[in-house]
Amino acid sequence: MDYRSNAVLTYVSILHRNTNRYFSSLLEKHRIGSGQQFFLLRIFENEGITMYDLAKLGNYDKGTVTKAVKKLADEGYVVVSVDAEDKRIRHLKTTPKAIPLIEGLYQMRDEWINKLLDPLDDATQSKLLDQLKKMADESCENLETFLNMQNSFFSIPEETEACAEGSFVSKPYFHKQKCTCV
């Protein structure tokens, strides 16, 4: 098990970093990075999606979504509109300026995936996809369990906050969170 635990994370990390470098190099002239391409495609595929639903769709935190959407809006690729009934909700739509970029992103993505999968036969590709999905689902379940535990796997001290009276109140290091699976 020793060699596998490190190898799995190493190989996944290499794939992730190389994919980000690939997209970043191709998107540089459009003034966005690899981090925004996921969000732009999901907004295009789900016109009017809320920022909350976009976060759930990709298993991202609200801060990451906010930062990516701001960059896309600043570059003129998406429009953010406030919900008529609930001012806290933001709806996202792509702009006409985004359409050529989106078409290019689909092409870039397909070419990259084909290059990665080309050495594998169809049966191996199918099995790989199934196994990656199982691993992703398992990681979501394990992370959810971990985040909801009272005591963490590691011994991490609790943070303390000063109260108005000058005493200190313990604040749990981990807060209950829900990890949405892909």
TrEMBL record:
Protein source organism: Candidatus Ruthenibacterium merdavium
InterPro entries per UniProt: HTH_MarR-typ, Tscrpt_reg_MarR-type_CS, WH-like_DNA-bd_sf, WH_DNA-bd_sf
Molecular function terms, GO-annotated: DNA binding; DNA-binding transcription factor activity
Key words, A-Z: DNA-binding, Transcription, Transcription regulation
Name of the protein in its database record: MarR family transcriptional regulator
Entry-linked Gene3D superfamilies: Winged helix-like DNA-binding domain superfamily/Winged helix DNA-binding domain
Domain HTH marR-type: residue ranges: 1-137
